[in-house]
Structures are given as structure tokens and as C-alpha cells.
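Q: Joint fold for the lines below.
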Amino acid sequence: MAFGLAHRKERPRVPLRHGEGDKHRLTSLEGLAALSLDALSSVAYGPEAIVVVLIAAGTGTLAATLPITVVIVVLLTVLVISYCQVIAVHPDGGGAYAVAKKSLGPRLSLLAAAALIVDYVLTVAVSLAAGAASLASAFPALSTHLLAVCLVLLTLLTTVNLWGVAESARVLMLPTVLFIVSMLGIVVMGILRSHPAAVVGTAHSVRATESLGILLILKAFSSGCSALTGVEAIANGVPMFREPRVKRAQRTELMLGVLLGAMLLGMAYLIRRDQVAPRGGVTVLAQLAAGAYGTGWEYYATSLIVTLVLALAANTSFGGLPVLMSVLARDNRLPHLFGLRAERPVYRYGVVALAVLSALLLVAVGAETHRLIPLFAVGVFTGFTISQVGLVRHWVTEQPEGWLRRAVINGLGAVLTTVAGLVLLTTKFLEGAWLVMVAVPLLMLLFTRVQRYYTAACEELGLGRIPPPPVHTMSLVIVPLGEVSGLAQRALTAALALGDEVVAVSVQAEPEKALALREAWERWNPGVRLEIVDSPHRSLVHPMVAYVRRETGTGREVAVLIPEVEPRHRRYALLQNQRGLLLAAVLQARTDAVVCMMPYRLRL
Amino acid sequence: MAFGLAHRKERPRVPLRHGEGDKHRLTSLEGLAALSLDALSSVAYGPEAIVVVLIAAGTGTLAATLPITVVIVVLLTVLVISYCQVIAVHPDGGGAYAVAKKSLGPRLSLLAAAALIVDYVLTVAVSLAAGAASLASAFPALSTHLLAVCLVLLTLLTTVNLWGVAESARVLMLPTVLFIVSMLGIVVMGILRSHPAAVVGTAHSVRATESLGILLILKAFSSGCSALTGVEAIANGVPMFREPRVKRAQRTELMLGVLLGAMLLGMAYLIRRDQVAPRGGVTVLAQLAAGAYGTGWEYYATSLIVTLVLALAANTSFGGLPVLMSVLARDNRLPHLFGLRAERPVYRYGVVALAVLSALLLVAVGAETHRLIPLFAVGVFTGFTISQVGLVRHWVTEQPEGWLRRAVINGLGAVLTTVAGLVLLTTKFLEGAWLVMVAVPLLMLLFTRVQRYYTAACEELGLGRIPPPPVHTMSLVIVPLGEVSGLAQRALTAALALGDEVVAVSVQAEPEKALALREAWERWNPGVRLEIVDSPHRSLVHPMVAYVRRETGTGREVAVLIPEVEPRHRRYALLQNQRGLLLAAVLQARTDAVVCMMPYRLRL
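A: Joint structure:
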């Protein structure tokens, strides 16, 4: 699935710094678990996407699944060879954005970034929708609540990722192996049996609404291309491998290619032989599983393992997108917000952004995989093409040994992925691909506008220039107070430490209260001037702002010190501070004074 | 309707202070417009509430509407006489809460306040639901969207009240006069005609499910009592009248009594004579209007004017509840939040609270008036009783001329409203009145808990005691900085003015960047020490908090000065400041340092 770990290369740096070396790095087999779950899990919706399109021309056309899959596997072969070269040239990983930034200039890097963001979001949505469908195949009661299942899974993933649970390749090993075994088992057992062991789901009445023309075949091909998403993830994560990392990564890429190709071809054969058509309440994969295993425990176990692997595939987006967004933020192309990590090493804003966008998408399509597939893969193929073109440029510029042969391979890859991408876009345009065509340019525009702002702000802030030395001035600290109290004593203590001059200011609406305050002040005699400001309209904030504005701009540094009562129990927070926070907000918006919040903690 | 202007007495003080005198005060007739719209508009749902209950025993029982209405009008008479006395004794107005606080002690005042809050919310819900039903009578297309109509009206009222449009009695005069004319017109025209001019709505098939027993009559009576809500509003608003204000207010109260009584009796007569039963899609009032006017323009005009008057009646709650909540906040019985007015003279939090609560209620009952009526009026009658009992206590304590006669009248009133209240409560308990019985004690508990907190906080803050004089200490100002820039220069200037000692602190994750900063600092040489804090885990906030914690508690006043970049355009706000705000929030929560935000405004 799409670019799952594109930017994860950033993470392993921390252990390295602590000198823990290679034992935290991946072997070839572990790499398969950590970096190709999203690609392998595509078999859960790729073949289905082909069948759903072909069935429009009647059940007789299902035989076309096999030749279409053969073409897709050819494309897969070219991509795998191409990415083995990408691994050799970019051993630091980095994904399409990094490659494009380095070799193809800013504009194409923005295109790559936009395509990546769209894909990360789609990966989450498609994986969860397919996972929910797989779960519902085993437990039919869930089939009317697919959206709810998706949103529950999404909430779970988001929570886990906000807490920052670091996933480990070893934890992923078991589900990966189980998944590969059960998928290959479906193919082998299915071929060994002469007819399906069991048939699940309710029969659809098939009305042939279209004939099997070239357009329908192209459509089925482009839908099936969704099975190729994620092939690039290993190339993006090369730094995660043990030395010799290039060799190991290439070996993993080849393993992925062989496994995925075998699964796709085997399933296509079974679909053709057993005339597997879409049936109500179950997925095509569930039908194949029932055909191979019957409906015993193996069937349920397969459904559960497929759901788990799809959820884990969605999880790789949570590893990838927040990191990509933080890189974009560091490049001034997204709000710096997305580069913020509070105390946990998690880019929370990125995680939340991904969760919100995926949830919106899932709700919009009602968690139906078939409605997401047309949006999917356009962005992935954009990334494929950019990577290959970048590589061709690299070969031509550097001209190492055998550069021409390599350039031809990557060039062929680029041409094939471009053609496939165009087929995808044209055949799926009206079904949803237009949305990607709208979203990608909008994202690119956003990046550009954000960058333009930061460049201008940087100039205004004088970043990178040595400024004149700071000026020494006198200071006035204004303390808004309502009454004589322990709080007032604490506030004046802080103000006297900070200011050359201190004045207490009280806004009073009623003359009697003002008089009483004046008397109490004189009895207290704190050595600080008290000014009482009249407020005929009972507003507290407006007269204070006017007072502060009068004092600023006289050459002195003016600070307003606002005492802030903080109850120990959070449930009382609503009962305190509201006036101080309101005053602080208005002062910050309307005056040039420094606004100081002084905490006063209660035992309550 | 309920206590519409209970606390509006606070508003007219401002004009007085400016010496504009009596021309902003109300004449008797204007008082009718300003203070009794909610009472008069009750005729839109009071008679209907009786009919809806009686129809359960078949159409033959509709004749009982007249005697039940006669009893309600007797109760009205007693209330009007009672309230004329309340006006004389409490010329400063004030509502049940003020009366109870003065004469009956804190516990009953809390009961009065809780009952008032419940009623304000119900007034909004009932008025809007009845208004939407009236509108749908004229425009049947709306009848399937009653809830949506209510919520649109509510949004409109809330927006207007958040902006603080001060309603004027003169603006209300026209709809009031039109409403009275059209209601009296229905009665007079209806009586003059020998049979209805037109019949609107679709016939319901009536199945008699109950017999006309005493319980059904009591139920119909208690539902009809909803027509009496709002009778007390004039007494609450006495200070709004021109001198002689007691006389004028009493005259208005009498006018209200006569008009409301005449309308109720006339309508009850017509319901009996024409056998008006509930029909689909129209209100009882709409049927009466069609019977009197036919279905020409007068019918549509009446529907519109009824809707308008009901919306205006709902609006009186927006005048009353936020003010009551601000009074409760001033008495430490609600969060001080509700006493906050920013720059407009509007208690926004109270307005929002009222809108949210009414919206929830409308959604919960699906905007059906009949489901709100059982909740309504229990609280109103609690307020009636509390006011009367307070007055009896007043007469017995003060013993002015004729006190015994007066005490007897108010005592009779108290007994009658108590009996009516108990009837309401028992007959309507299962239909929803239990909700009021739950809500009122919960609100009283809330008031008590809030007050307990404020009392304890007041003690801890040393309010009302003269504290020791403030202490003179030295200060350290810490300036978190990332780089040498114009922003750093401005921040150090402010810090040097405020602190006896200033230190710039930079958290750096990468040694190369730290070195570069150190070099730039030495070239700049601002005369301030730079400390670089290492952050192996790339967190910015945690090392800074640790640094600040080390410095506090050494006897010096520690302040952290955080520069805050403020773009001129609000759309850029998301692009700046997030790191500073995050740091400020964590420092405020975790350290005892004074946190100072220094604004740095961009021209962007």
C-alpha cells in the first residue's frame, strides 16, 4: 500500500546516537514484515476490484481477470526491478518527495508531496474499509455497520499513535507470516481441489449492463492496479536495514515481488476456474478462502488475520504521514505546527490531521471499498513516475558504469507507470479520480502560499542577520487588581521584582466600591501607587486596554502582570481565571504591552 | 410566559445615570407590550393543551373545556390581585429569586433560582415549538420540518442576542396591538357567526381511550395552567415604568388580566360551541382563526402574527436568563464566567447556555408542544408560590394598615398556586414533570457546590484581610530563543528592562546547530549570557521546563519571556506562535514562573 514508510528513515536515528548499532536494524525477512505489509495486503482488494468492474458485462467475462492480472504482474516486475535500482542509488531512502527535491526541482517535489499526502489518507481509508468488509465476511451481523467498524478501528489506531507506541518489526513478523501462509494456502489448496469446498454469501442477480469492450478492460486493469500500491515502501525505508543494507533491501523487494505476483496470479486463476462473482455480504477473498478451506475454523482465522493485516497496513500511514508533514513543515511548506512534538516523540497534529481526513473520507463514501478504489492509485502512480523520472535524470547526469541500460529500465518503468496512470485517470475520472485532480493542485497551492508567508516572515524577523544590540530602557509594570488581598500582595511582590515602576490599576463601576478600595489600600500602604479607573458602562476590559495603550509608546517597556488563580483540582478550573484570560487575550490583540501571567496556586 | 423580564431591572439604570429621566420609561400601554407578550401569547397553546387532554375521552367531552377555563380564569384573577400587591411592596421589582433572598432565606432563594432557570429554558422551547406549529398551520409544507423551523428561529434569536440588539418597547407595540386585535377579533367574529366560516386541517379519527373522570379533568386543568405563565413578569419589571410607577404597573397588570381572561373564556366558548377537536397539521388556534375569518388573508396574517409574537416571547428569556445568571454569578452561586461581559453589554456565556439548553430540549421532544407542556408550569407555579409566601411573611412582619386583609389575599393565592402546582406535578409526573423534579434539585446542588468552592477560594486568597506588605526581591528573566535575529533583539530589550538578570536559553538537538548559534551569538555580543540546553530526544518543551524549574525556588522572582510573532492577517495566525503557546501552557501548568508573552507584530 502507498508509501507506507516513506519517511520513517528519520526514526532510527535516535537509537544510533545512543550507539546501539545494528541489532535494531532489519534483516531481509524482518524488512518484509516492517515495510511490505501494505503492499501484500493489497491482495485483499486488488482482485476484487477487477471482478467488480468485469461483472458489469456478465459472469462470462470473469475469465478476463486472468489476462488482466498477467499484465498487472508484468508491471509489477518492471516496478520491482526499477525499485531495486532506486535502492542502490538512494541508500538513504527518502521517498518520492526527497528524490524529487534532490533531482527534479521544487515544483515536482511539491507534486510528489501532494500525491503522497493524498495517498496516505487513501491508504488508511481503503485498508480500514477492506478490513471491515473482511471482518463482516466472517461475522455477517457486522455487515450493516461497516462504517461504524471502520471508525472504531480508526479511533483505536489514532489513540495508539497519539500515545506513540513504537511498533517493532518483530511484533509484525507473526501476522505477516500468518498472512503469507494463509494467502498461499488459499492458492495451493484451491488449485488442488477440483471444485470449491464451500460457497459463502448470498447470490447477486447479475444483469449485464455493458459489453466486454476495450474500455471495460482498461477500467478493470486500472482498478486492479490498486494491488500495486506499496511496492515503493521498501525503497523509502532502506536506512532501516542491517548492513549490507542495499543488498538486504533489494532481496526484500524481490521477495515482495515474487510473493505478490504469485498470490495475484493464483487468485486470478481460481477466480476464472470457479467463476467467482461478487456475492452479498462477503468479499471475493472470503469466497476464495471458503473455496480452499471450507467454512471451518481456517475460514474464520483467515478473515481475522486479513482484518488484522489491513489494520496494520493502515497503521503504516500513521508512521509515514506525520513524519512527511513534519519534513514539509521544516521546509516551510506546511504550518510549523506539524513539526511540533510536545513531550512524547509524536507529531500529534499530523496524526490528528490524518485521522480527521480519513474519517471524513470514510463517511463520505460510506466505508465502501469500491467507491474508494477510483480515487486510489492515481496518486501512487504519480509517485512511481516521479521516482523513475528522477532516477533516469540521475543516470543521465552521473553516467556511471552501465548507466544507459539502467536508464532504459527506469525509463521503461516511467513510461509504463505514466501510461497506467493515464489509463487510471481517464477511466476513473468521473468515478472519483477528478477529486484527486482537484486535491493535489490545491495542496500544491497551499504549500506554495505557506512557503511564501514564511519567506516574508523570515525577512521581517531578520532571521540570519546580526541585529543591533538590545537597548536598555526603563520599565513600567501595570497590575490590574480588584481588591486588597493575599493575591494582591503576591502580585505586587512579583511586579516590584520585575518593574522599575509599578502601578496597581483597578477598574470600578460604582463610586462606593472605589472609595472602599482606596481606604483599604491606604490602610495596607504597600508602597505602590493605586489608580482607579472609572467604568460607567461596567466593562472591565475596555478601560484597562485604554489605560495600557496610553502608557505604551512612551519609550518605556510596559508589562501588564495578571494574577491567575489556579485551583489544584481541574474540575474547578472553569470557576476561576476567566476574567484574567479574557483580559490577557484582549491586551495581546490590541496593545504592544508584554502580558505576564502570574500563577497563584490554591490548595483546593 | 415565565418570568420573562425578571431581572431586566438592571438594564434601565444606565440611562438614569446619564440623566435622561422618564422618557425612556414605560407608560401602562407600553408596559403591556414590553412585559406581557409572554403571558398573552400563552393563548396560542393553553386552550390547545386542554383540548388535547380531553379528546382522550372522545369529542363529547370537549364541552368540559369551558368550566375548566372558568376555574383557570378564577385562578388568574387571584394571581392578578396578588401581583398588584407584590408591585406595591416590591417597587424595585426583582423576581422570585430577589424576593426569596430578602424574605425567605438562602435555601428557598436557591429553589426559586433553579425553578426560574428551568422555566426560562422551557419558555424558549415551548414558544418556539408553538410558533413553528402556528407557521405550519398556514404553510403546510413546513409541518414535517417543525424541529428545523424551531432551530432556525433559535439560531436567529441567539445571534441577535449575542450582538446585543436592545429591544425597545416601542418596537414591540405594533405586534402586541396586532396580536390583541386579531385574538379579540377571533372571539368576537366567532361569536357573531352562527357556525365556523371555514374548517382547516385533516380530521383525526378519535378513539375514546379514557372516560371523563376526575383525573382527566385535573390533567386538563393542569395543562391549561400553562396559559397563566408570564403573569408575574410585570411585577418583576416595575422599575421600568414611568412615575407613578406602582400605579402604572398595577394598571398594566389589570389590563393583562382582563385581556387574557377574555381571550381564554371566549376561545373556550367557541371550542365548546363548534366542537373544535385537534386536527392534523393545524393548531386549535388556527382552527378558531379559520372559523372566525375564513381562510382568506386574515387567516394567514393571524398565523404570521402569532408566530412573530411567540418568537418575541421566547426572546424575553434571552433578556431574562443571562441577567439572572450574572446575578447568581455575583452571589458566587454560578461560575463567575456568567458575570463576564467583554466589550458589548451582553452576558454571552448566559446567552449561549440558554441557546444550547433550549436546543437540546427541542431536539429531545422533537419540537412537539404537547410533550413540553407537562414539563412547563411546574416551575412557574413554584415561583408563584414562593412570591406569595414571601409577601405573607412581609405583611406579618411589617404589619402595615390593612395587613391582615392583604395577608389573607396573598395567603389564598399561595394556597391556590400550591394546590394547582401539586395537581400539575402529580398528574404530569410520569409525562415529564419528573424531569423538572430532577433538574431543580440538581441545579440547587450545583449552586451550593459552586458557592462552597468560592467561599474556600476566597479564604485562601485572603480576600477582605489586609495582607503583609509586598516583598522586594531580585528577578531573573529567562528568554527562550532559537536563533540570532531581530526578534531576539526585541525580546532581549524587553527582558533587560524587566529583569535584574537576563539569560537566553536555547534548546538544541543537534551539536552543529548549537555551535553555529554560539558563534552567531558571540559575533552579535548582546551583553546577555546564552545557555544551550542539550535535547537528545528532540523535545523542545521538556528541557526548557526542567531549566525553569531549577531556577525557581531560589528566592528570586523568575519570569520566562516568550516572544510571540503576530501576523497582521488573522489567516496567518495558524502559521505562527504554536511553539510559544505550547511552551507557555506547559510552563503555566508545571512551574511557578511568571510567563510573559511579548508581542512582535508583522506587517504581513
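Q: Anything notable?
A: The CA atoms of residues 41 and 310 of chain B lie 6 Å apart. Chain B touches chain A through 94 residues (CB under 8 Å).
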